[in-house]
Amino acid sequence: MFSFLRPVKGIVVLACLFLALWTGAEIAAVRVTALAIDQIKTIHLSDMRFLGMWEWLSGDYAEAQGLRRVVLALAGFTLTVGVLGFLRETTNTRLSMHMVFHIREAVYDRLQRAGFGFHDAISTGELINRSLSDLQNVRSFINSAVLLTLEIVLIVGGYIILLLWRSPWVAALALAPLPIWTWYIIRFSRKAQPALKATMESGDRNISILAENIAGVHVVKAFATEPQEITKYGANCDDFFGKVMYRIRLFADFLPVIRSIATASHLSLFLAAGILIILGRLSAGDILMLGAAMHAILVRLQQVSVINDQYQSAIVSGRRLFEILSAKPSVSEKPDARPLPPGPGSVRFEHVTFGYDPTSPVLHDVTFDVPGGSVVAVVGPTGSGKTTLVSLIARFYDPQQGRVLIDGTDVRDATLDSLRQQVAYVFQETYLFSDTVEANIAYGRPELTGAHTEVAARLAQAHEFVEELPKGYGTMLGERGTTLSGGQRQRLAIARALLAEPRILILDDATAAVDPETENDIHRAIRLMMHERTIFVIAHRISTIKTANLVVVIENGRAAQIGTHDELLAREGHYRQIVNGQLYGDLRADDAEAPSHMKRMREFFEKKEKAASQPAPNEECASEPAP
């Protein structure tokens, strides 16, 4: 965690310098106060006590001059303490804010660079909570660990030296509680860390529930499950409340023990000081100095509990935060990686085997060639691995076996930036940012605006509805583009991909939400725009598939059939079943009068439950009395 101090080391040094000077000035002010008290006592016991106020303020008497010098010195140190305190607090605030900036920058940078596997494993709400709450816990601890710890060391050390100079016995008594404090803090931390971790995990679940319900508010309202969601959130809030209360009870038990040790130490020291004053080994000024010193020491030692509280939170938060900071990309770039060389966009899969879990492959030994400038349709049953297949082209993941080549270059040998600039995706789940229509279209090429975005929108059949928006291309879209229909969002996503002018365009069921006529217009425009470039289309409509130069049928993670529409239609297999199902349907004449499948299954399970509730024949016989 202390690595975050490197970018702000200059401010850290300055803050520590001001703190050290402030501590020295405060201790000096206490010592001068003690000297003033001793001098006043000496004067009070002499005949000089009968002088008037004016003689003390302006007289030439040695005693009056000495008292004025001590008072001026005390005023000077008090003023110095005030000025240094202001500089110290200002520098501390600068340090804290700069550190927050650098930690947030590091976390956000890592979130952007982390691989798909990391984001798949941790929910959005949990990542948000870690990036906010856990970050603040770490920042607070680092700030306290550096400055508050240094303040405790300087204050306690400085006053102990002052006490040692006046009386070694008093100093020894001041140090007596430290071993007891250390033992109790270590004992406490063993209970505190698991409690803090449980509290933070429950807080993560709260944020996740909030994020999911806000994002899925249409589904909640469509199924009228508001009471169910409120109950679920309330139950988790109750769990969170219970864990917070347990944590509060732990710290409520901790603070009184620490304060009791401090109070006992304070009383013991004053008892010892009183005896030493009676014996004449300490002066009247020393008792004031001792009181100020012991107050400062005990206040600082009690702040150890604050640092310990922050430390326990920061240890748990630090581990959670560093899961983000240590997250590695799903794919790594080779040190000698080179930009992807120019080419027509030919793609080759060579014996590719891949699984999100290496022990359970999703794709098995997939091999096929795609010439540059081809339109490739990827079809197959749901869950067969179509989206996984095309995600390997831009290296969202790397295969465990085999390789993927673009224009003869293994994608693992190319730099990620050059590769992903040449491969554009239109995903099945369209995502638009809370920005203008123009900014969303130009997202991949922000330098291209105006006429460029309009051309891309026209090609994607989006220009007409964009012109009807209140501010046209300058209209702000709602979160995730919720102010638009599904088809409109898809067309803007297609325009965004076309504006990037990629070598390879991948459409993952990207026109499923538009009508067939608009789909035909979009595909016609895409083919014109992507002339002599490669297009992969994951689609289910035969009207889209039959125009492709090559059809790849994926079944159970394998390339079961490869060929043109006419070639595959002439063979037995999954492709012919898809075509027959769409062209001729599978509804028989008597299906309309037959009961629904849902009704038949319900009746089946009702009969099964009824049979299970009735006793078996042998059980009935066994229950009858013997003749």
Label this structure with key terms:
4-stranded antiparallel beta sheet; ABC transporter transmembrane region fold; Rossmann fold; 10 strands; alpha/beta; 627 residues; 3 domains; 9% strand; single chain; 6-stranded mixed beta sheet; disordered C terminus
Q: Strand count, sense and closure of the main sheet?
A: 6 strands, mixed
CATH architecture descriptor name of the largest domain: Up-down Bundle
User: What's the multimeric state?
Assistant: single chain
**Strand fraction:** 5-15%
CATH class of the largest domain: Mainly Alpha
- Overall geometry: elongated
Strand order of the largest sheet: 6-7-8-3-9-10
Task: From the alpha carbons, calculate the radius of gyration and give it in angstroms.
Answer: 38 Å
Characterize the structure shown:
With 627 residues, the chain is of the alpha/beta class. It has 3 domains: 324 residues, ABC transporter transmembrane region fold (Up-down Bundle); 148 residues, P-loop containing nucleotide triphosphate hydrolases (Rossmann fold), CATH 3.40.50; 70 residues, 3-Layer(aba) Sandwich (Rossmann fold), CATH 3.40.50.300. It contains 22 helices and 10 strands. The longest helix is centred in the middle third of the chain and has 53 residues. The C terminus is likely disordered.
